[in-house]
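Thread: quick sanity check before group meeting

JM: Hey all, I'm pulling together slides for Thursday and realized we never actually wrote out the predicted structure for the chain we discussed last week. Dropping the sequence here so it's in one place. If anyone has concerns about the input, flag it before I start.
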Amino acid sequence: MKQLSKYQLKKVSDNLDHYFNKASETDIEEGKKWYYNANQLCKDIASRFNSDTETVAQVISALSPRNKWDKNIIDTVTVFDAVEKDLDPSEIKVCTYHRNKSKAFDIVGKTVNITNNSRKTFSFVKNIGNLDSNYVTIDVWHLRACMMRDIKTTPTKKAYDQLQRLTLLKASKHNLKGFEYQSIIWNVIRNKKNYETV
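JM (edit): ok, ran it. Output follows.
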């Protein structure tokens, strides 16, 4: 996905309004809580292993591909425990790719960091690790809401930044943080009866 025109951004704005207006009270309530709950999990794991929330968030992010959230948290604890016991990545199992498992070990060992070159994962780390409201996690679900269709390609950095700025603007109009607004949209768009394609 390349840089978006003013016309395309107007369409995205209308699409986000469309889905936000479908949000139930439960969608809003749960959406507003999700990142705070995730941040508390990061704090709990950081405290248990004498680490920090951003490192924990990076490990969660590294282990997230093809991994359900609850299992992701279990796998994160498994990685920290393994590093503490000086185990090799090959000695444990997690529910993601081997390269991601190795990356998680390197993150705990402070030899690798997730940077802003990877817009989505960096934003996710900032959101769950620090509750940083300057970033929005634009995942596949948010992209579907933005475009009202499945997106097969990853947004360029320029396109990501455009969508992030627009999402932050939409959130502020509802007195929400960007990650709260995104989570509400996520709750709505995952409901198949709300997902409409063009």
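AS: nice. Residues 6-194 form one domain. The two ends are 17 Å apart (CA to CA).
JM: adding both to the slides.
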